Amino acid sequence: MALMLAVGLWGLDRGGMWGDESVTFQVAQRTVPQIWRLLHDVDAVHGLYYLFMHAVLAVRPDEVVLRLPSVCAATATAGLVGALGVRLAGPRAGLCAGVLYAITPMTGHYAQEGRSYALVAAGVAGATLLLLRAVDGAGARVWWVYGTVVALTCALHELAVPVLGAHALTLALLRVPRRVWSGWVRAAGAVVLLLLPLVWVSQGQAGQVAWLVAPGWDRVERLARNLTPGPAGPVFWGSLLLMAVGLRERHTAAVALPLLLVPPGILMTVSQVRPLYHDRYVLYALAGASLLVSSGAARVAGALGRVRFDGRRMRVRARHVHALVGLTGVLALTATFLAQLPVLRQDRSAAHRPDNLAVVSALALRQMHPGDPVLFVPSVGRLAALAYPKGFQRARDIALRGSVPRSGTLWGREATPDELRRRLASVDRVWVVAEAHALDPRRPPSDLVERTKLAVLAEEFTVREEHVRRERVRDDVVLRLYIRRRPGDAPDGCSAADGPSCPSASAAAASRAVVSSSRRARSMRISSAPKPVEDAMRRGT
């Protein structure tokens, strides 16, 4: 636990939040009624986590406090994995399992992320330990505690539900008596009943994960490498070998193997029909890998401890063998940790995350003047202004309608196409914060408001200047200053081969799309434009 705490606190202040963290940060600072309203339309799967973080950020709203619950949860999980190892295979195996969990790069990554995945992993590890206590005959009260822990864990993220399947397989492999099955079925049934309302609501919000794709064998290989202390080289292959040896320990394998295989297997299978799988959703399966590796290592150490050597000039006694084996284990764990230091160090950089919204805000702060209108393309780019308002406090969000927290959305409701045209008609210059993919003429946006933005920019404005930061930010975010085109000015010249770097080509394509859409609307005798629907496909939700 001390090692995990040190790894988690190391470089915790990266100097920037990425998109998902910024959502946690700004939603958790809303009032409870505002959070409740949001959950009716989006992110119900994270509702309990947002309410928990609302209390945490009430102490101090900053990036370090945002990530501290994940650090504490990862620390607790390392201790729980160690306790599982002690219960299943002895103190040495427990110590090894906890250390392996702490030094695995995947653990360190999510220990420093302001999302619920580390907390879910702690809940699953705690529930698994309670399951073993119940199997050993600790009494009926343990089943109620077990059910409560599983229910809270699944409420933090409903895709933790497959852990019930893993626990059912564990009971089957252990061949427990009927009374144990009876207690578990009651607890699991209560959990399922409590989660049904959450599942029903979240089904209507499935568009949030529409960006996921059906996983193939490449994702299986990637997960296998993520669940080991080293993704490649001798550490990876040595871990697989020790896992195979650990399968010989029946009691440990009955607990660790289902935890390792069942949740990813269920989600990957379901995802062939309806994609729901991502590595972070099964972070809790890593505990199974650590237990198997430590069990294999303990079995090898036990075999070596029984070796005796009596020669004419040297005698190796049993205590010498045990000391040598112990020293070898310590050196192996130390070498594994040192081998992962470059990976862990790289992970402490904000550039290693999908985006860095602090960079976008800093860029806006240097370039924008007081009162400058700003347009976000697409509207999800407003997360940078919500997470780091200092960079945009002098600017005027020309497309936003009302307050974002009161809107019951993640990044606000925008003006209708007609209203947006009127607003843009009143300005001679506008800053555009855009993601590169949103300006790609080969990928016109489906939302009418987004198409209107690009159409107006193509028809009435021209690019005056463009700023791009070298740091890795969300899909290469660019900051462009558009000024109103004077009569007789020609559009910026560029060819179709220029792709997304050509603003006039992308905007012209959007303009044609808007005109075509308007003509279809008139032919169908639609009297008013459709109400814009918020784009729910936030990457990484």
From TrEMBL:
Q: Where is the composition biased (Basic and acidic residues)?
A: 532-541
Spans through the membrane: 117-135, 142-164, 184-201, 252-270, 282-302, 323-344
Record keyword Membrane present: yes
Q: Does the keyword Membrane apply?
A: yes
Which InterPro entries does the entry mention? LipidA_mod_glycosyltrf_83
Q: Topology versus the membrane, per the UniProt entry?
A: Multi-pass membrane protein
Question: Where's it mainly located?
Answer: membrane
Biased composition (Low complexity) is annotated at: 513-529
Q: Where in the cell is it found?
A: Cell membrane
For the region Disordered, what residue ranges are annotated? 513-541
The alphabetized UniProt keywords are: Cell membrane, Glycosyltransferase, Membrane, Transferase, Transmembrane, Transmembrane helix
The source's superkingdom equals Bacteria
Name by which UniProt lists this protein: Glycosyltransferase family 39 protein
Q: What is the originating organism of this protein?
A: Streptomyces indiaensis
